[in-house]
Amino acid sequence: MKSRLVASAAISALVLLGATGCTFISPQATTIEYSASDGVNVSDSDGPIDVRNAFIVANEDGSVGNFIGAVVNPTTEKATLTMTVPGLDPFTVSVPAGKTVSFGADEEPLRIDGLDTMPGATIEIHFQSGDGAGTKTEVPVLDGALPYYADLVPAAEEPTPTPVPTDTAAPAPQE
After folding, report:
1. Domains of the chain (ranges plus CATH)?
2. Which of 26, 67, 91, 124 has the fewest CB atoms nearer than 10 Å to its CB?
3. How buried is residue 54: exposed, middle or buried, by Cβ count under 10 Å (0-12/13-18/19+)?
């Protein structure tokens, strides 16, 4: 009778271990850090500034985009962030000490002319602050299909109208 009790306890332990044992060896999803929105988080380990929820909202052909994101300066001194998109002049943003600059929310988005990246793709942007080398990150390029991004689509630059010469002479009297 004791052997039956020991056998049933052993079988119960094996069933319990078999049913829950995989949680001991698989990674816990709650410990994996990720960006919980459409954008990406950028942390420059060499510099003082962090970028949160960075993405670009582009027009239909991907020629112009608006950079959206929060630039965070947790330090006690003013800091500068330089963002470099391949083939374009760098963008420089100054952030006061202990402040956050939110492009697309509190501030106007940063317009990127000559983007040349279609919505749905990503573009590599180099983020650099302080004296460090910076970090390159693939930033998603979105369109205005979602209602909350519709207002962030950059307006196309309208060409400056060419002045039409006007005849300032008085019209000739008709006979």
Report:
1. 34-149 (2.60.40.1890)
2. 26
3. buried
